[in-house]
Amino acid sequence: MSGRIPQHFIDELLNRVDIVDVIDARVPLKKAGRQYTACCPFHDEKTPSFTVSPNKQFYHCFGCGAHGTAVGFLMEYEHLAFPEAIESLAQNLGLEVPREEDARGSSARRPDTTPLYELLARSDGFYRQQLRNHPQAGRAIDYLKKRGLSGEIAAEFGIGYAPPGWDNLQNALADNDGVREQLISVGMLIRKDDERTYDRFRDRIMFPIRDRRGRTIAFGGRILDSGEPKYLNSPETPLFHKGRELYGLFEARKALRQIPRLLVVEGYMDVVSLAQFGVHYAVATLGTATTREHLSQLFRVTPEVVFCFDGDRAGREAAWRALENALSVMREGYELRFMFLPEGEDPDSHIRAVGRETFENEMGTALPF
Predict the structure, then answer these.
(1) Does residue 243 belong to any structural domain of this protein?
(2) Cβ neighbours for 332, distance < 8 A, ≥ 6 positions apart
(3) Which residues of 169-199 are buried (b: 16+ CB within 10 A; e: fewer)?
(4) What is the CATH number of the domain that holds 364?
(5) Closest among 268, 294, 21 to 153, alpha carbons compared
(6) What is the block-wise mean pLDDT of the chain (369 residues), using blocks of 10 residues?
(7) Domain around 283
């Protein structure tokens, strides 16, 4: 979004935010006199050296030196850019972030997208509810069990089920024409030439795609039986741009306090299956080649990125495209590696064959940039 956030709003926001509440919601704090303490979330330690001062509205770690305000904590802990951290704090207080006008005097405020996020959250809930209660959900559950996924992992990634039929989601959510138009705008419904609409996702395992703040912005669906396409993604929408988003990044940041490396794979199921085996740092591009925007986002989270590709020609070509895009992004301190699997195997099948320890050892010896 264009337009700067006014300084007076930032000052007012920090005056209204309690840093203790912000940090305690993410790192449980204990009262210690006038301050609060915890083990530092930014480095490993057994004795708490991380302190939070409610009077100064400041945190400081005597072990690693990390320090700052509530905004700085969110930027560091959740790997957010400054405007994103401001928006996150403002949202918790029910405030809308203003933007200064541009040089021509026109407003730089964007249209309110809150209803679209809310509608996608309702769609997410609908699909998860269908996985629990729909008469044909057993087919989806059997498929997930066959792939070796536990109920806990399915819940962690919010996996759901789009049942057969042309208007299940539409009938559940589109109670007026305005909502129907919004569902079209976020890619959940498709309008035909005769103006009739129908559900985009039908009889598919559903994977919600979440942004860095955990909001559902799109979906990927895997067909249960034979048919094409095997995987279907949401189209580009006002909320979703596939060249910028990475499936599983929010879940990785939620699962791990520190992320020393990220593993980039090709599919949703690879990400989820690797998490099932304890590899909670895998992400996937969304049906597109790795872009410079993807790489910039990855390196904001971790200094080491490993690409995992099939060992066939297509895998080598994908690796070369990723390498080309990385040329303008690489900086001192960044590390990029390429891990090639035996032909015919994907990360899901390979980790099942060799186990987590061997899989991670192979990752550590992957071909360097």
Answers:
(1) no
(2) none
(3) bbeebbeeeebbebbbebbbbeeeeeeebeb
(4) 3.40.1360.10
(5) 268
(6) 78 86 90 91 89 92 92 88 88 82 51 87 98 96 94 96 97 93 96 93 97 90 89 93 91 85 92 96 88 86 90 82 87 91 89 95 92
(7) 249-368
